[in-house]
Specification:
123 residues; mainly alpha; 58% helix; globular
């Protein structure tokens, strides 16, 4: 039996194979997975050399910082100029904590920024 999708004829069995791949990946049962520390590391490690990575890294960090501030005390204090230093600080922290590469990005950013930009001694 052939199926037609958007005017294209799909060979028999292809739909079953595709459905099997999707189901086995867990995306249906668990929902989409977020980024992890390895994604943040790759994005921010090249931020000083590649303009697109710089934009991605800074945007990702800014989004995280804004959300952390919106939803409560973020646990870190960024002063003037710290946002520019944050990508290198996050990369340094992740490289010092390799286990962070498999942890959720939000957890990694919270730990890295809290340690690198501690509020202790800051106004």
């Amino acid at each position: 039996m052939r199926h037609e999708i958007s005017g294209y004829t799909v060979p028999p069995g292809l739909l079953a194979v595709l459905a099997g791949l999707l189901m086995s990946s867990g995306t249906w049962a668990e929902g989409p997975r977020g980024n992890d520390g390895s994604v943040v590391l790759r994005m921010c490690k090249g931020a000083d050399k590649v303009k697109a990575l710089s934009v991605m890294c800074h945007s990702y960090l800014n989004g995280y910082v804004d959300a952390a501030r919106h939803y409560g005390k973020p646990g870190f204090c960024l002063e003037d100029g710290d946002k520019e230093k944050a990508p290198a600080a996050v990369v340094e922290w992740i490289e010092a904590h390799p286990e962070a590469q498999s942890q959720p990005a939000g957890t990694v950013l919270h730990k890295a920024l809290s340690e690198k930009f501690s509020c202790k001694g800051r106004k």
